[in-house]
Write a structure and sequence with these properties.
There is one protein chain. By secondary structure, the protein is an alpha+beta fold. It is built from ten helices and 16 strands. The strands form two sheets. Strands 3-6-7-9-16-10-15-14-13-12-11 form an eleven-stranded mixed beta sheet, sandwiched between helices. A five-stranded antiparallel beta sheet has the order 1-2-4-5-8, with helices on both faces. β4 and β5 form a beta hairpin. α2 runs antiparallel to α9 and α8 crosses α9. The protein starts with 27 loop residues before the first strand and ends with a strand.
């Protein structure tokens, strides 16, 4: 039903930021603009003749699966800003789709945007993760009031809507992904601007209620501008910054004495209860280890009356595909049986904390803080990472060394 609401029509336009008209369901292919040739370097005057070349045409299309984009080409764009964010990697998003966690049946219909040079074999310049949503679950931004207001004012359905995000992951990062190889800074900036404008045009052509971009990077705010039809909503998250610490104790020494004492007491919880805490990478884990972690994840969802968005297959696929970019903290009892675990993903400068869970009959005070927070900080220090992001919400993180920071929570074009 979601896909059936995508408009099927065709058209092309020439010039900056053209109208997006598509063909097929849900694929769209359009000429969205032209790209100014890269300026020759000052120390190579013989290349100045290239500056007179006409602007080249670019083509934008949407694809119904990330498998329709070459893995290498997608990842070149994902790393184009010089930062590796595992959540926008081809491997992570593919695991979401192939496992069925982010799929049409789950209310997440992929329609990723791909910008390339014109032609069937045109070079891919930029991509953006994009989904047609039939609900607002799994976004970590609550827009039910928006949906109610939209219905009252327009007498129309709020769903489907268009969403550029990482499914089920409130982690900050770029949503407009453009390659850097072969492009100058000005050209890459033009590509990012074209993509931001074209997402709005796609939403208009699909006749969805709105376009939303969630947890995007602060650097993208210039492209998601009011002039392009976007409105800004800023949320709050709590991140930990690594100020060049060599050890966890170095970090503690920057805190007040009362906080140091509290953290040290909390870290003793595992030892006092005969538990062993250790870290392992995805490349070292067996399928049975992921089965155990999935059991913990389901237990936590059941305790909180929440919905388990991720299925068992997702964890298996992600662990196999991403290897050392996945870091899991496990807890074992005195008999060597796993009783708790926490999932982290490793970026080029950030450790991202995600899911946690434990055995249904386990009740150890402060164990959550040790497994999810302190182990993550310790790992980040050892790996030389700049920060730890431990997900959305949680003012209690301030007492444990995290600091409040603004995070773009939703930028919508209606």
């Amino acid at each position: 039903q979601i896909a059936d609401m995508v408009v099927a029509s065709t058209s092309k336009c020439d010039g900056g930021g053209g109208i997006a008209r598509g063909y097929g369901r849900p694929a769209i292919a359009v000429i969205v603009g032209t790209l100014r040739p890269r300026r020759p370097l000052p120390n190579k005057p013989k290349l100045h003749r290239c500056a007179c070349q006409p602007r080249e045409k670019l083509e934008l299309k949407t694809v119904s699966s990330i498998s329709q984009v070459d893995r290498r080409l997608w990842n070149e764009c994902a790393k184009g800003n010089g930062v590796f964010n595992p959540f926008v990697s081809w491997e992570f998003l593919s695991a979401m789709e192939e496992s069925g966690s982010a799929s049409r049946d789950a209310g997440w219909l992929p329609c990723h945007a791909v910008l390339s040079r014109e032609g069937e074999e045109g070079e891919v310049l930029g991509v953006a993760p994009l989904y047609i949503k039939g609900h607002s679950y799994g976004e970590y931004v609550f827009d039910h009031s928006w949906a109610n207001a939209y219905g009252r004012l327009t007498r129309k359905n709020y769903y489907p809507k268009l969403q550029s995000c990482v499914p089920f992951s409130p982690v900050t990062g770029s949503r407009l992904l453009a390659k850097s190889a072969g492009l100058g800074d000005q050209q890459r900036n033009e590509v990012l601007g074209m993509m931001a404008g074209s997402l709005v045009a796609i939403a208009d052509e699909m006749k969805v209620s709105s376009l939303h971009v969630t947890f995007n990077s602060k650097e993208e705010l210039a492209h998601f501008s009011r002039e392009r039809g976007y409105l800004t909503r800023t949320g709050i998250q709590y991140h930990w910054q690594n100020n060049g610490y060599d050890t966890f104790n170095d970090f503690l020494m920057e805190l007040r004495q009362s906080k140091r004492k509290s953290i040290r007491q909390e870290r003793k919880c595992a030892e006092k209860n005969g538990l062993r805490v250790y870290r392992t990478y995805g490349s070292e884990m067996l399928p049975s280890d992921w089965d155990e972690f999935y059991r913990f994840y389901i237990n936590t969802c059941n305790k909180k009356w929440g919905e388990a968005y991720l299925n068992r297959e997702f964890f298996h696929r992600m662990g196999e595909a991403m290897g050392d970019k996945v870091l899991v903290v496990f807890v074992e009892d005195a008999f060597g049986k796993k009783v708790a675990g926490a999932l982290n993903l490793v970026g080029s400068d950030t450790l991202f904390g995600r899911n946690w869970g434990c055995a249904a009959d386990l009740n150890v005070k402060n164990l959550h803080f040790e497994v999810c927070y302190y182990q993550a900080l310790e790992a980040a220090i050892e790996l030389g990472l700049k920060r730890v992001e431990a997900g959305a919400q949680g003012e209690h993180k301030i007492q444990r060394g995290y600091r409040e920071c603004g995070a773009p929570g939703r930028i919508g074009a209606n």
